[in-house]
Amino acid sequence: PLVLGIETSCDETGVALVRGRELLTDVTASSMDEHARYGGIVPEVASRAHLEAFLPTLDTALERADVDLAEVDAVAVTAGPGLVGSLTVGVAAAKALALSTGKPLYGINHVVGHAAVDELVHGPFPERFVSLVVSGGHTSLLLVDDIATGVRELGQTLDDAAGEAFDKVGRLLGLPYPGGPHVDRLAQQGEKDAIRFPRGLTGGKYAKDAAKYAYDFSFSGLKTAVARYLEGYEDRGEEVPAADVAAGFSESVADVLVTKSLDACARNDCDTLVVGGGFSANSRLRELAAERAAERGITVRIPPIRYCTDNGAMIAALGSAVVRSGAAPSSFDIPTDSAMPLETVRV
Ligand code: ATP
Ligand code: MG
Ligand code: FE
């Protein structure tokens, strides 16, 4: 099927066309520059930007793929999770397009889309795999038997997302927003073992609940530990070893992400880990995942970074899988769900 995918869950307006598992085009407009001066995403600014960017983005996508709207077999749109004001713009646009062309509409789960997009890059998924979706808004582990119909949530973050923790530590270190890439670069100049920061949800009071939290994450305690460490230097009037702090912090985040993901693979008999979401750009995560997965004979699949950040291709990819599964289309009053559960691949 030829599927038009629309993504507007956060600050990126994405439109893409996918035929089967083949990506025809993927166009993204971002309002991040407008948010940067506020030091965070401003929902009203984001939804307004989607309104302005949608039609030009759609036109560009159709033009680049040399496709007429009438040729599209189905319209797929992110229904959640995300910012309600942003989701609403994409869903309204998708409904209008589906109604005017008489094509079926599919409301799609954004987080599952982050995993699904890898099929466009690395080909069909194995029968069962684990996916780690990690970004500024999400940190989730999924067990996938069928990307269209069989997704289970193994765990997720109980507080901050990994990217969010990096942005907060970036702020503590006086780096520009979003801090993630800056902290990553700084970390590469530091010594990863110079400072050992805590690994969230392991040891201490969590030791007795190890099984309960096996696949969950927590990064807010780690962020607080970094803040306390930096305060110590401030109190003593000493210069902060910023690169070592960044490296120790990055090591803690990468260590828990990789350890839990590979444990999930081992315990669920999977030899494939699919990583997605904008935090997949993190260099230490990539290194450590490659290193430890190789030791265990597990294949790590990570799409190029432009398909890891929010985009339309991920929604078209999952939409295409859902259409191929024979699932019934969504109703025209699909709700936007800011907290859509991961098991709900489509609404
Ligand atoms: P979502 O809606 O999926 O949560 P988002 O816009 O919050 O989307 P992405 O755009 O997918 O997140 O990813 C951006 C996040 O990843 C930001 O928090 C950013 O700081 C972080 N990030 C990006 N590159 C790196 C990196 N190299 N190292 C660490 N963090 C990074
Ligand atoms: Mg983003
Ligand atoms: Fe996302």
UniProtKB/TrEMBL annotation:
Cofactor(s) named in the record: Fe(2+)
Protein name: tRNA N6-adenosine threonylcarbamoyltransferase
InterPro entries, per the entry: ATPase_NBD, Gcp-like_dom, KAE1/TsaD, TsaD
PANTHER family (alphabetical): TRNA N6-ADENOSINE THREONYLCARBAMOYLTRANSFERASE, TRNA N6-ADENOSINE THREONYLCARBAMOYLTRANSFERASE, MITOCHONDRIAL
Family of this protein: Belongs to the KAE1 / TsaD family.
Domain Gcp-like: 23-316
MF terms (GO), sorted A to Z: tRNA N(6)-L-threonylcarbamoyladenine synthase activity
Purpose: Required for the formation of a threonylcarbamoyl group on adenosine at position 37 (t(6)A37) in tRNAs that read codons beginning with adenine. Is involved in the transfer of the threonylcarbamoyl moiety of threonylcarbamoyl-AMP (TC-AMP) to the N6 group of A37, together with TsaE and TsaB. TsaD likely plays a direct catalytic role in this reaction.
Pfam families associated with the record: TsaD (PF00814)
tRNA processing keyword on record: yes
Family matches, as NCBIfam families: gcp_kae1, T6A_TsaD_YgjD
Main location: cytoplasm
Keywords: Acyltransferase, Cytoplasm, Iron, Metal-binding, Transferase, tRNA processing
Cofactor binding mode and count: Binds 1 Fe(2+) ion per subunit.
Reactions the enzyme catalyzes: L-threonylcarbamoyladenylate + adenosine(37) in tRNA = N(6)-L-threonylcarbamoyladenosine(37) in tRNA + AMP + H(+)
Subcellular location: Cytoplasm
Binding positions (Fe cation): H110, H114, D310
E.C. code: 2.3.1.234
Binding sites annotated in the UniProt record for substrate: V133, V134, S135, G136, G137, D167, G180, D184, N282
